[in-house]
Every structure is written in C-alpha cells, then in structure tokens.
Amino acid sequence: EVHLVESGGGLVQxxxxxxxxxxxxxxxxxxxxxxxxxxVPGKGLVWVSRINVDGSSTSYADSVKGRFTISRDNAExxxxxxxxxxxxxxxxxxxxxxGNSADYWGQGTLVTVSS
Amino acid sequence: DVVMTQSPLSLPVTLGQPASISCRSSQSLVYSxxxxxxxxxxxxxxxxxxxxxYRVSNRDSGVPDRFTGSGSGTDFTLKISRVExxxxxxxxxxxxxxxxxxxxxxxxxxxxx
Lengths: 115, 113
Hints:
Chain A has 115 residues and is mostly beta strands. Chain A is built from no helices and ten strands.
C-alpha cells in the first residue's frame, strides 16, 4: 500500500527556516517525480515545487523561487523541502504528492509563519 | 501560464440528485502523446486531496461509478449521478502538462441542500 507521510511543519517567525520531509513507502520512490503542493486553510491548492526521479532537475513556483529548495534521498525514500526566508504568506498546509498526475498525497504538515 | 476555471464554485445538491461541475482550461490539455492530462480531485473536510479521475475519464481504484469524467481539449465535466452524503467536500480539476506543473481550478464546494 502506498503511503506518504509529511513532517517538519510548525510555528516559525518571519525570516526563519524549516525543513519539511515526506517519507514514502509502498512503491519504488526512485521511479517517480515528486511534487510539493500547499494550501492555505480554507483556500485552494497551489503547486510549489517538483523534482525529477534522480534529483537532477527541479522547478519552483515564482512565489518561492530562490527561497525554497526541493531535494530527495532515494536511498531513504524521502523527499525534502528546505524553506528559507519564510514569509507570513507561506503559512499553509504543505502536501507531498506522487508523480505528474498526483495520484497519491500525504496527509499534509502545517507551516505557520508568524511573529 | 495556463488557467483552470471551474464553475460553479458552490453547488448545493439534494441527496440522490445529480451534480455537475465544469472545468475550462485556457490552453488545450492534449499532449503530444495524444493523451489529455486533466484530473479531478475530491477533498473531504479535514482530509487531503484524493484523485478521482485521471486523463479526463478514467476512474481511480475504489472510486464509485456514480462519478464520471468527460470532455476534450479545453472543456471538461465531472458528473455525480446521485449525490450521497459522503460526497460533501471540495472538488478540483487539475492540468498536468503546462507550466506551472500542476495547475488547479479554484475548487467547487459541494454541499447537501
């Protein structure tokens, strides 16, 4: 059974950093592109970033480019999102999702940026 | 950037009645491989999104057959033949071929009237 479990969220001050993790199981992680999507509570879904199967290619939404870094460790079946220079508007639930058609999602981890 | 536009944004439905959600893309979602990359998701209250339909009309495993996806090119529809209480939530369409990588519609909130 496919599982994606995010962690690492929490309360951080503006300008601070957090590192999110997404540990996966039940499938061959190294065969799938992976994505991060965020959702402000009560609002819609917004794509954040994606990474190809071996980590050699990454893309970011304009709103996070230069501040967030996506990476992966295929040996550990783990996807990461390093978030630096956090802003109040980055407050959201962050989901990891599998593949370019988003067939499986994690349960999400809440990031709150507030002073 | 491609824009996905859903309507209606709010959909009150009587139990047992049909429901229909429209999704329009600002660009064709037909890829060079001939497939059309339009997916539908359901997000129940307090849950993460769940994919219901992929490539326009293919139901994911475990999705009831009362959910049907249709459409082509830039215009797509999700239909629920008879709404049940467990269908309450927000429904999103999503394209997966144009930049940005995933683009979602605004979401349609389905509630029981």
